[in-house]
Structure formats: structure tokens, C-alpha cells
Amino acid sequence: MSYEISLSDLTLTHGRRAAVHHCSGRFAPGSLTAIVGPNGAGKSTLLRAIAGLHSGMEGRLQAPRAQIALLPQAAALDRQFPISCLDVVLFGHWARAGAFRALSRGEKQAARDALAAVGLEGFEARLVGSLSVGQFQRVLFARLLVQDAPVILLDEPFNAVDARTAQDLVRLVKRWHGEGRTILAVLHDLELVRAEFPETLLLAREPVAWGPTAEVLTAANRMKARMMAEAWDAEAEACLRDAA
Ligand SMILES: Nc1ncnc2c1ncn2[C@@H]1O[C@H](COP(=O)(O)OP(=O)(O)OP(=O)(O)O)[C@@H](O)[C@H]1O
What sequence ranges are listed for the domain ABC transporter (predicted)? Predict the structure, then answer.
């Protein structure tokens, strides 16, 4: 099965306002791509749409929805819910197997192994509300390990985590890439992108540039993205075909 993700003249809206506008291109199977751009450029909206979690859409978006695991932005998650680290990781199995099936001993062991793999052995019973930001992000990566999806979408995965955690998690991402998975990550740290991500999509509602990272992250392209973001009228309605 091919795990290509392709966009064809894709416009994504919130209400009647466009968040992503006339976007075309493809993420090749097995590619490791950073999605970068100014605040409000549409990066999270694009990721959620690829995961099948966004409904306001025109144009075409082809993605293997059942094969995708999404790590949402940490800010979008409620950590006050009284749930243990192990339970959060076990959700990774349920995403694949359905919520109403009892989990096998092997699946529970896989969840414990995943916690150990992200450096959280002994944290099984800890409530997620008591973790540091970095520890919680490690738990979410353990859940991704258990999900074992061929396509992984990461929304600002290293935001606000300590340097050591970021290093460990980047190592995991590289391992997944080496295993042939397709990985898209929304990132703000351009040095990290240059060092670790072979492909980049520079987005400012529309793609400014998309391809090999060194060719995309030029000063001219970054300036263009900034100017496009500043010139964007956030109140303008999307030019949808049925909006005329
Ligand atoms: N739930 C929502 N309802 C209405 N508008 C939204 C919603 N989510 C995002 N938007 C708007 O859509 C546009 C794109 O937002 P999005 O979060 O996709 O950008 P982003 O590039 O991920 O930004 P950041 O880097 O700041 O996280 C912004 O103008 C934002 O205000």
C-alpha cells in the first residue's frame, strides 16, 4: 500500500475564513518533512486535515487516514484528567484495535516497553497531571510507539521541552524515518530543521516553497513568508467555489 499524501488546490477553512489556501504538492512515502511558517500560517490546520480531523475543505486531499498517528500540540491537551501514564500509552492500541476490545497481556507489555523506551520505566501508575512538560511529551511519544503507524504527524513536538528530552525524541523520529515511515512535523526551530529534516514545506497560508530543506529555507523565501503572513487579511472570506 502506498502512503503518499497529496494535496491538490487544497483550501481549508474555519467557518468561511481560509486557514490554508490553494495548496498543492505531495509528501512522498517515507519522507521526513518539516512544516514551518509564521504564527497563524495554517500549519496545525493542515496537519489536522491530513489526519481527517478537519471538515472545512475545498480541493483534494489524499491521505491514508487509517494509517496515521497524530501528536497534537501539547496546549490542545487536557492533563487534569486523572489518568495514568500507562493508560495514556494503552490508548495507542485502542486507536488501532477499537475501544471495546480487551487488551492482551502482550499489548500491555508493549505499552510498558514503550514507556521504558522513552526513559520512563517505573512511571506506569503516575498520573499524567503530575508530570513535567518533557515527561508528558515522552509519554505521548510512547503512545506513538505503541500505535506503530506508518504515517506520523507531529505538531510542535519539541515545544517547551528540555534539551535532553528534545534530543531523545529527535532520535526516535530519526529511527522512525529509518524504518520507512512517513513523518510530517510542525516546527519553529529552524536550526533543528536544517540539521535533521531533509524536506521542508514553508507555509504562509499558501506554500511559499516545498522541497529539499536547504533550497526552501533561504533568506528570500523566509522574507517572502513573513511578508505574505503580514499582508494576509485574517477577516477575508475564502474564495470557495460555492461562496461566489
Ligand atoms: N478552531 C478555530 N476556529 C477559528 N479559526 C481558527 C481555529 N483554529 C485556527 N484558526 C485560525 O486559522 C488560522 C491558521 O491557524 P493554525 O493554528 O492552523 O496556524 P499555525 O500555523 O499552526 O499557527 P501557530 O504557529 O501559531 O501554531 C489562524 O488565523 C487561526 O486564527
Answer: 5-230
**CATH number among 3.40.50.300, 3.30.565.10, 2.40.160.180, 2.60.120.1440, domain 1-64+151-158+184-244:** 3.40.50.300
Burial annotation 26-58 (CB, 10 A radius, 16+ → b, else e): ebebbbbbbbbbbeebbbbbbbbbbbeebebeb
Pocket of ligand 1 (CB under 6 A): 14, 19, 37, 39-45, 234
The confidence score (pLDDT) of residue 244 equals: 38
Closest CA to 206 of 12, 10, 23: 23
Distance CA 206, CA 85 (A): 38
Residue type, 72: P
Strands 206-212, 182-186: pairing kind: unpaired
Position 243 scores a pLDDT of 44
Ligand 1 atom at minimum distance from 42 CA = 18
Percent helix, strand, coil in the chain (nearest 5)?
40, 25, 35
pLDDT (tens digit, 9 = 90+) per residue, 144-153? 999 999 999 9
Domain ranges within the chain, ordered by starting residue: 1-64+151-158+184-244
Atom of ligand 1 nearest to the CA of 48: 18
Question: Is the pLDDT reported for residue 13 higher than 70?
Answer: yes
pLDDT bin (cut points 50, 70, 90) of residue 94 is: confident
> In this model, does residue 121 exceed pLDDT 60?
yes
